[in-house]
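User: I'm writing a short methods note and want a consistent example. For CBS domain-containing protein, I'll paste the sequence; you return only the structure tokens, no commentary, since I'll be parsing the reply automatically.
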Amino acid sequence: MTQIRDVMTKEVETCSQSDRIYDVALKMKEWDVGVIPVVENDRLMGVLTDRDIVLRCIAEKKPPSSKVEEIMSERLITVSPDTTTQEATRLMAKEQIRRLPVVENGKLVGIVALGDLAVRDLTDSLAKQALSEISEDDGEQALH
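Assistant:
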């Protein structure tokens, strides 16, 4: 079985809780990503998503100079590099999330997106079904 370590993105741009939202948004644009993990002393503290910026910053009229810690998603669902792609896909479907930080010994070592799993056909039809269901969900998600 394929493990997450075989498909995860290993070079992940991160930010800290004290970074300004504006600066992290620029990183998102530069890296063409919708999520940036928030790390302090090598420990994953949360994530900042493009959705967090829209809903918790812009919609609440917070200045873009606000700190990441004010709006980041703190409820994290993670996997280890040894997790199988099938297990990760099931977890994403169950939790209705699109991305999973990959953590080993408390340290962020990568990230895997549901789209990576579905597009690469590494899992059964569950990945495609989960992607379809999550894409239809308009509700608040723990990790988007």
